[in-house]
Amino acid sequence: MENILIIGCGASGMAAAIHAAERTDRRVTVLERQARVGKKLSATGNGRCNLTNLEAADRNYHGEQPEFSAAVRAAYPPEQVLEFFAGLGLRTVTEYGGRVYPLSDSAGSVVDVLRLALEKENIEVLTGCAAESVQREAKGFAVKAGERILRADRLILACGGCAGSRLGGVMDGYDLANSLGHSRTALYPALTQLRTAPDYPRALKGIRADGRVRLLRGSTVLAERRGDVLFTDAGLSGTAVFEISRHAAGQSGLMAELCFFDEPEEALYADLLARRQRWGSLEANRILTGAAQSRLGQMLCKYAGISGGIPARALTDPQLRTLARAMGAFCLPVTGVSGFETAQVTAGGLRTAEFDPETLESRIVPGLYACGELLDVDGDCGGFNLQWAWASGLRAGELR
Length: 400
Ligand SMILES: Cc1cc2nc3c(=O)[nH]c(=O)nc-3n(C[C@H](O)[C@H](O)[C@H](O)COP(=O)(O)OP(=O)(O)OC[C@H]3O[C@@H](n4cnc5c(N)ncnc54)[C@H](O)[C@@H]3O)c2cc1C
What we know:
elongated, six-stranded antiparallel β-barrel, binds flavin-adenine dinucleotide, alpha+beta
């Protein structure tokens, strides 16, 4: 019987194990350093687990070799991943933008069906068991985990990346692969918060609004997204911000430009003139009452140099013009991005040129495979990263 060892029992490791064990002439052992399996998975999608996206396309994925992830994803598109989960008993629902969630609305259901599927005679899961080192042997591999030495004919690295370190993201996978001769690209946190100069965000903490966010260097737009923006005490969060954060990592001198009004400046200005006339006795810094959430409206006024204490009718045309401009471009200096602790995904990873996309087997070490976030593939926000984890895990689990 062939012995398969998988290091990491997260999303991709579980998919690989279940797939690999479908052939009963294989014995599959999965090592998990944390006390329980799927800890990160339980926290995904704010506890709802956005497990895939039916609109997944090449543009949603990043990495040094786009064609590598495209080949793997083509073998296991979202529909096939959903078939895999339906086979495990999971019922799902598709929401806006093709985002798929468990019908139960609980990430726990995804972990539960995977755990149940791992309860097979030829699968053994060892939790609280961290792989510390790996060596090639005449036939296969020897992995040291505490006092144990585990031997395997074939080895799958499914250790994930170093993002989400509070939920178990570590460097182990890169180090183990490196000890076997593999190299990696630079790593940086992606799908994370933007830190901004503290003047405004702190006062706006907790405000969530739909809008457009642009990342600017001078007048050059480096990235632009529409969607959810959330103000935190350190800066900006939310889906739209997550998606542009990869362009801010390691950069300086950038600005985040926010716009919560889907109208040209002239239309905003005309509306302000009408407001001044209609609600002239209102305190000037409340002129956006009903147009924006009150704290945001007052903050935009402050940004445009308009304070309270005078009636709206005292506002001059140039002041209203400045406010209209601020409504279309509320700019905050970006001071950095949040680190790996809070990032949802690691950009960069093991060099994909060193793996065969048809099998995910190493081109350097026969019998070694890698899958999931550990590889230099990362996706946008919206179920794309888990889609990659499942697709690559299933592919690696074929063990062709
Ligand atoms: C807060 C948060 C929310 C997210 N939400 C979403 C979402 O809704 N949709 C989406 O698509 N993506 C989401 N992601 C990203 C997604 O969770 C990851 O991309 C995905 O889990 C990666 O799968 P993986 O198998 O490669 O790694 P992981 O799921 O991280 O699994 C790797 C496992 O390997 C184990 N391990 C590491 N080293 C060792 C070792 N030496 N020995 C033994 N075990 C080891 C780890 O403990 C871990 O359990 C989210 C991430 C975070 C942090």
